[in-house]
Amino acid sequence: MPFLTALVLSVGVLCLVDLVLTVGVIRRLRAHEEMLSARPAGLPSIVLPPGAVIGGFSATSTDGVHVSDETLTETVLVGVFSPDCSACHERLPQFAEHARSFPGGRGNVLAVLVGTEEEMADERRMLEPVALVLIEEYGTGLTKALQVRGFPSLALVDEHRRVVASGTTLEDLDKIPAHA
């Protein structure tokens, strides 16, 4: 009988310890939830978000084709890349492959290379067969129109200059909002 009494008391003490620990964990979770809800909704986007309208721009591609906000007649795929961006070097081949099968072909794909002709020579050779390539300085032309704040920046822009989807990966472009 003393053995059973000791066992029941041990189980009771164990349950009380478990209850105290559970209450402590719940309090910590509530504190974390309050901290998370006090933060801004999300990190600032590095390119215009879906639904935004791009600014005006005018540029000439490396092969002499004039491109502007006025020439957008269909949805276009836009990729903005920089020479000193490791993520750009990883995603550029994926972008080129995606551009190869993009509806409307090469004329509906704009690849913006931010830098000098010499810095972007390899990227230009890779992209010219599948996209209209624009080489420009940061903060001008299409980078200004899309309000690019980081690299790589990808976007789908419709004929009304409205961003349909945007992000840093091709997967982000697959997440088209319901209101788009």
Automatic annotation (TrEMBL):
<dbReference type="InterPro" id="IPR013766">
    <property type="entry name" value="Thioredoxin_domain"/>
</dbReference>
<dbReference type="GO" id="GO:0016853">
    <property type="term" value="F:isomerase activity"/>
</dbReference>
<dbReference type="InterPro" id="IPR036249">
    <property type="entry name" value="Thioredoxin-like_sf"/>
</dbReference>
<protein>
    <submittedName>
        <fullName>Thiol-disulfide isomerase or thioredoxin</fullName>
    </submittedName>
</protein>
<keyword id="KW-0413">Isomerase</keyword>
<feature type="domain" description="Thioredoxin">
    <location>
        <begin position="48"/>
        <end position="180"/>
    </location>
</feature>
